[in-house]
Write a structure and sequence with these properties.
The chain is mainly alpha-helical and about 240 residues long. It contains four helices and three strands; from the N terminus they run αααββαβ. The protein folds into two domains: about 160 residues, Helix Hairpins (Orthogonal Bundle); about 60 residues, no CATH class. α1 runs antiparallel to α2.
Length: about 240
Amino acid sequence: MMREDLKRLLDLQSKDAAISAVDERIAALGEELATQDLALQRAREALETARRAALEAARRRDDMETKIESYRTLQDRRRQRLEHVRNPKEASTLMAELDLARSVMAQEENDWLRSAESVVQHDLKVKTAERNLEEVTTSQAPQRAEVAARRSVLDAERAAAVAAREASANQLEKPLRIRYDRLRKSRTSEVVVPLVGGSCGGCHTAVPLNRRSQIRAGVVLDGCEACGAILYPAEADGSG
């Protein structure tokens, strides 16, 4: 019976190894997608940055335009006042104000022209970023489709491996299965390991002679006192 339990444990461990192998391949696909996602994210962020800059440039241009319109309104009022002024001193003052305002407006209009040109340049950057995002998306489409197809195959393979694992696990007595599962959760290496010489094949800790004899005789499924791994005689591995 002990030898049968060992066979079932080793079979279960092989099923878990098969699942782990599939998981590694799925993880590798995830890394491929992560690289593509990063390139796509950068393209999207570049477009968003370009759009924000374009909106800010348009806002500055519109603010300048509003400011210039207010200057023009004030100039019109000054001209209207000038037409009705009879006092030379007051007329001179209004003329000076008109000249100063005209100079200020000229500078503001120059600034507005530069701002309008900036809007054009930012709009061009937005179009460039949009084209780049479209190119990245288009270029990735075949790769993403291939990865999705491979993932679908691996998901099916994993589902079959999990089903086989459960069928194998169900062959174990409940206490032994619980022991195996608990050890598997707490270890990064194999749960069931061979005796190598007089030592544990997992951590290489020496096993007392009397326990070695019992393990080799198939009397017990003993565990390593150091790492907890279930020990078995090396000659029993896969040999029946």
